[in-house]
Design brief:
278 residues, mainly alpha, 0% strand, elongated
Length: 278
């Protein structure tokens, strides 16, 4: 579906470069080095590395939180994937209007702040004693609402990041005369998988450190262990995400600058229209 509905932009793509060198390990390494020399790309990559650590940690602990910390029933837990689907649709719908009105950097940073805030606020409030008790009427609606807002913001942030990579591809072509979308997106995907794996590893180590009784019946874990689980899922897991926001804040490619880059590329390539749009 994605391919079919984007075929219309194929005529607008720049012509393939001539005299490309044959693929080799040396050319591959030079391609990677060229991409990493771009400061905007490097900041987004490092930011995603830290953000992935937070995501990986929380995904690993998610079912522990549902079953033991919040003591939700399976029939209640099934609503969270549904909220994730709704959040994806909402995020898709509001991203373009946001990009039309604001630069991608403030959209990205704002959405990451919102996502992290709404993800950890329920846990933090419970640790401080300011949250509805388990098995009460308001617990599930509040958790679902917080989850919906957090995932919607995260979806907008992720789309903004991918869109920013397309802008960086233009910047990279201007600086190096090479189109490197493949390298830019592939390296980001690799870093995302690696950092998510580190998050899973960190969560597993944390489970061992707090001696969490995996496999125990919900409702039988002592309060001290649950408190430690909340600490790991909340204030500790969010630390890499906060660091990620700092690196995202170093991104400097604005809409105005990108328009200038596209104009220069169009003049260089003889293209009458912009190659990419928001």
């Amino acid at each position: 579906i994605s391919t079919v509905f984007t075929m219309s932009v194929i005529p607008k793509l720049p012509p393939a470069p001539r005299n490309l060198p044959s693929f080799s390990f040396r050319e591959f390494m030079l391609d990677c080095k060229s991409a990493l020399d771009n400061r905007n790309y490097l900041f987004l990559l490092v930011g995603y590395l830290f953000l992935g650590a937070t995501i990986g940690t929380r995904v690993t602990l998610e079912m522990h939180l549902y079953n033991y910390f919040w003591q939700l029933l399976p029939a209640q837990i099934r609503y969270f994937p549904l909220m994730g689907i709704i959040a994806s649709i909402l995020g898709f719908m509001i991203t373009a209007p946001l990009h039309q009105r604001y630069d991608k950097k403030p959209v990205l940073i704002s959405c990451m702040v919102i996502a992290l805030t709404f993800l950890i606020t329920p846990t933090l409030l419970r640790l401080m004693g300011f949250f509805p008790e388990n098995n009460t009427y308001f617990l599930l609606p509040i958790l679902l609402s917080s989850y919906l807002v957090a995932i919607t913001a995260a979806v907008v942030g992720m789309i903004s990041t991918m869109s920013a990579l397309a802008d960086i591809a233009d910047e990279q072509e201007l600086q190096t005369h090479r189109r490197q979308e493949g390298t830019l997106y592939a390296a980001r995907a690799f870093f995302g998988k690696a950092s998510s794996g580190l998050g899973h590893l960190f969560a597993g180590i944390a489970i061992d450190i707090i001696a969490f009784p995996v496999g125990t019946e919900p409702g039988t874990v002592d309060a001290d262990t649950l408190f430690k689980l909340g600490l790991v899922d909340g204030p500790i897991a969010v630390i890499p995400g906060i660091i990620a926001i700092f690196f995202y804040g170093q991104y400097s490619l604005t809409r105005t600058r990108h328009a200038e880059i596209q104009a220069t590329l169009n003049q260089r390539n003889g293209a009458p229209e912009p190659v990419f749009t928001n």
